[in-house]
## 1
Amino acid sequence: MPICSAQMLEGRPRAVPPQHPAHLCVGRLDRRRGFTFIELMIVIVIIGLLATVAQLRLSGLLRKNRFRAQVQEFVSALRMAVTAASESDRRYEVVVDLAEQSFMLREITSPDLYEVLEEEIITEKYFSENCHVAYVQFDDGEYTNEDRAKFWAGHAGWAYGGVVVFLDSEQRPHSVVVNRLSRMITLTEGEVALLEPKAKDDVPF
C-alpha cells in the first residue's frame, strides 16, 4: 500500500505523491539494460559476419587480380618478343620453365640457341603459388608439363605456336594461345585444344 504523508508548508498541509518501491525501479532498470546489451551483441555479431564475408570476397578478388596480372605479364613478354622481332632482324625467345614456375624473355645474340648470356635477358619473373603453369602444348604435337618450353620469334613471326595452360588458386584453367600464323597472343578461360598439328618449318626462324 502506498503511504501518503502530509507536510506543512506555510501552515497548510500538502499531500506528497506516493513513491514507487525501490526494488521495482531497480528491476525495470536492469531489464532495460539487459535488453540493450543483447541488442548490442546481436549488432556486433552481424557486423562481424559481414566483415568476414567482405574479407573473403576481397581476398578472392585480390588473388584473382594477382593471377591475371601475372599472366598478363607473360602475355606482354610474348607480344614484346614478336613485335620487336617483326620490326627488326633480331630474334627473341620466351622460355617457360615449368619446374621453376617462371618465364624469361631474352634477345638471342649468339649462334647457339641454347646458350643464354646474362646480357641477353630482358625480363625474368617467377609465378606465385596462386598462378601455376600446368602444361605447354605446341602446334606440332609436342607436350610438356615439367620441362622448359621455348617460343622463338623472328622477323617472319613465331617459329611455331602453341598453348600455355595456367591454373588459378581455385584450379580453374586459363589458356594463353600463341598463334604463329596471325602472330596473335590471346588469353581465354578454360583449356583450348589445338585443332591440328602443324610442321615447324611452316614459318622460318
Note: The longest strand covers residues 91-97.
## 2
Amino acid sequence: MALPTAKPLQEFGLIQGLKRQFAHHAPGLVHGIGDDAAVVETSSPRWWHFTTDLLAEGIHFTLTSAAPESIGYRAAMANLSDLAAMGAVPRYLLISLAIPKKVSRPQVYGLYRGMMKACRLYGAALIGGDTSASKAGLFLSITLVGTTAKRRALFRHGAKVGDQIYVSGTLGDSLAGLRLLANSKTPRSSQEKRSQLSRSHRQFLIRRHFHPTARIAEGQWLNNGRLATAAIDLSDGLSGDLRHMCAESGVGAEVEIESLPLSPACRAYANAYGVSPIRLAITGGEDYELLFTAPPRSRRALERQARARGYRITRIGTIRPKKFGIQMTSHGRTQPLPLTSYEHFR
C-alpha cells in the first residue's frame, strides 16, 4: 500500500493553519496574526504594535549582488513599512543574526549600519537581539515595536463596499530594478536592451530596489486623520496584497488598470525589454508603498490634503461585494486580476 503523498507547503495556507491551531486570545491582545503587525493593549494610553521579518540569504538577498549596508537598509525598511501600514510610530528595534564563517566582521557592521541608517530616520532605537553561528547562509531577523493612540490604528479588515482604493507612490520600480541587476549578468542581447535605458532611469530603479522608502508619515497621516478604512503595505505585490486585504475585510475589488501609477523609469524599462509595465506593477512586491481604502465622501479632502503635504497617492479602483471577486478593468473590459505576486514555497 502506497503511503499518502505529503502536500507541498503553501505560505499563506500554512500561516492560516498555524493561526487556527496555535494562536489563541490572550489578555491585552487587540489583534493578532493576520495583519501587518500584532497589536497589544496595556495600561498606558497607547496600543503597542509588534512586527517581525526573517530574511534568508539566497531567498531575499545575495551578498554577491548587494553591499551589506544596502541589505541592512532594505531589511529595516521592510519592517518599518509594516508599521507604516498600521499608522504607527516606530519605537524600538531588536536584531538577530545567524552568521556563517564566510561573513566577515566588517560585513556584519555594514549590515548594522544600513539597518540603523533606516531606523534613525524614524527615531527607532536598537534595544537588543541575538547572534548565532550558521552552517548554511546568513539569516537576519528584525523585530520592530511601534505605538499608536488607543483605538487608533489601521487594519486590513476595515474596507467597505463602495470605498475607493488608493496606492502611494509608484508601482513596479523595485521589480524592474531587481531584473536590471539580474540582466547585468546575461548575454549581449540583454546588454543591448540595457543600453536603451538612460543612466538616470537605471540608477532610479536600482535605488528603488536597494533603498525603498517606508511610508511612515503617510501612514500616520491616514491613521491620525481617520482618513483610511483599511491599509496594507505592498511587500508581496499588488495582486497578492489586495487579496489579503479583501479576504480580511470580506469584500471584492475592481482595479482600473490604466490608473496604476508608473514611474517614467519603469515605463522606459518595460519599453526597452519588451515587457508589460502593468505586469510589473501588479507583480512586483518590495516597493513598500501603501495600499489603502477610503470612503468616497472623503475623496476630495483626502486628495487635497495629500497634495498639500507633498504625498503622492493615486486612486486605482473601488471595493466591490465579495461575490464580485478580485477583478481588473481595462478599456471597458473586466476580467479576473491574475495572482502573480511572490509567495514562499510556491
Note: Residues 152 and 223 are 7 Å apart (CA to CA).
## 3
Amino acid sequence: MIINHDTLRDFAGRLVAAGGSSATEIGIVADHLVEANLRGHDSHGVGMLVAYVRDFEAGTLKPNQQPEIVSDTGTISVWDAHAGYGQVIARQAVEWAIGAAKTHGVAVNGLRNAHHIGRVGTYGEIAARAGMVSLHFVNVASGPPPVAPHRGKEGRFLTNPVCIAIPPTGNNPPILLDFATSRVAMGKVRVAHNAGKPMIDGALLDHDGRATTDPGVMYDEPGRRGVVLPFGEHKGSGLALICELLAGAIVGSPSVATMTPPERGIINGMLSIVIDPARLNNQDAMLAGIDEMVAWVKSAAPADPDLPVLIAGEPEQIARAERMANGIYVDETTWGQLAEIAQRYQIPVPN
C-alpha cells in the first residue's frame, strides 16, 4: 500500500477515536504516528495501532488521561501518566521542562507509567525548535524482553532508546540523535517480518544463539524465541542498562526486571533533561560554532561517492521529503491488520 500522508493520518485518527479519545488526543496521536512514517521510522508509525487497539480494548491503555504531578520543585518534576497515551503526556512533560529551563536554565522531568511514547525524536525536536538542548533516556516494560545483553543469548532488555537534540541555526535544522540501544528497533524487526524481508546481518540470534537474518525467530515459535543484539556490543548493552536505570529505577517507573506480564500492555518511563544553551555561551558564538562543526564533518570525502556524509537527523529529513511527495509505504500484513480493526469498528478503509 502506498498512501498519501493526509489520508493515512485521517485513517489513523479514526482508529484512535475507536478507543474513545478526545479530538485533541486523536490529533496528537495520529500526527505523531504518521510523522514517524514520514521520517522513515515505520517501526513507530501507524503499524503501532495494532498494539494500541489491543491495549485499549484490554484496558491497559487509558485514553484521555491527565498526568498526576507527583512532585514539582520548579526545576525537577515527576509525573505519572497512569497508562495514558505516551504521545500526549510525554509532549506535555517536555513542554513543562522547556518552560522551566527558560526560567531556571535547566529542568529535569521524570515520566512514569506512560503507554508507548512513540518516536522519542519528536520530543527532542520540540525542545530544539524552542532553542533548547535536550537529552532523553527511555525504558520499556512490555512483556518478555527481546534484547540480549552483551555476550548473552537470552533477552534482558527492550530497545531502550536515547535521544539528544541540538537547536537549529540559520543554516542548519536541528541536530537530532535518536536511536535504539539494540542493533535495530524491535518495530523494524516486526516490519521486516510482516513484509517477508530478511534483517541485516548482526542483528539477530536464534533460540540456540546462532546468528540469523530471519525475523521469524522473534515471532514464529514463541517457546523458542530468538533475541535482538545490542548495537556496538558492550556499548549498546551498557547504554541499555543505563536507560533502564535512569528511566526505570531512578524515575520510579516499572522495570523490565519486575514487569513482564504481557497483559500489562506497553509501559515507558522517560528521564528528560532540558538545558537553555544561552546560559552556557553567547548565542551568536554558539550558533556559529554549530555551523562550523557541521560543515567540517560534512566536508569529509565519502567512502562511497553515491552515499554522501550525513549528520544525525538528515536521513529523516530526506525520507520525509520523499514520502511527502510520493506517499507512505505500508506493508500488506500491517495494512491487513489495520483494515481488520477498521471493519470491526465500522470505519471506512482507504482504497
Note: The first strand starts at residue 2 and ends at 3.
## 4
Amino acid sequence: MTLVLAMVFLAQAGQLAPVSEEKREPGFSSFVSKLKSAVAKRDAKALRKLTDEDVIAGGFGSKDEKGWTQFSTLWEVDNKDGAVWDVLADLIELGFFREDPSIYVSPYVAWKFPRELDPADYLVVLRDALPLRKTPDRDAATVATLRFDIVRRVEAKKTSGSFDWVWVETATGVRGYVQSSVVRSPLMARGQFALRDGKWRLSVLDRARD
C-alpha cells in the first residue's frame, strides 16, 4: 500500500456496527419470520409466495434477469443445495435495515460500506470482541481486539487445522489473522425487500461480486 493510500485508509476506515431494523415495521417483521421458516426448510413453494412476481436476479450476466422463472433457475431454488438458501440465511442472520418506508435491504456490510474505500480490498468484522491473532491458530497470541472493524485484506484465506483464516491489517497498521467465518466482504450477495400491494416481498437478490 502506498503512503497516500495508507493515509486514506487510516482516515476513512473504522468500524461498521450491525444494523437490524426489521422490528420497526410489524408487517415486515412478520414477513421475516415467514422467510426464516422457508429458508430453514429450504421450501421452494414457500419462498415463491414470499417473492415478487417481477423479482430481479442480478449479477449473473451482462444484464439483470427479471421474473420468477429466471430467478428460480439462476438461483437453483428447486435444489435443496442451491446457493439461494445459504445466501438468504446469511442475509437473515446479518439483519435488515429500512432504506425507506417501502424498502428494506440486507446486509449492512454491503449497503453501508464507506463509498470512499474499494470494497474489493476490505472485510468487515462481525464481532464486537474478536481476537486478532499473530498466527493462524486459535491459541496464538492476540495482537489486537477487533470490534466491528473494517480491515484491509492482506492475503487470501488459508486453512490451518479445521479453520480458514485471513491475514488482515487494521486501520492503525496492525496485522494479524482472523477466522474467515467472522468476517464478510462488502461484495457479498445483497437483497432488497419491497412492499407491493400491501405485502412485503423479496424483490431483488444480487449474487456476490468477484
Note: The chain has two domains: 25-113+194-206, 114-184.
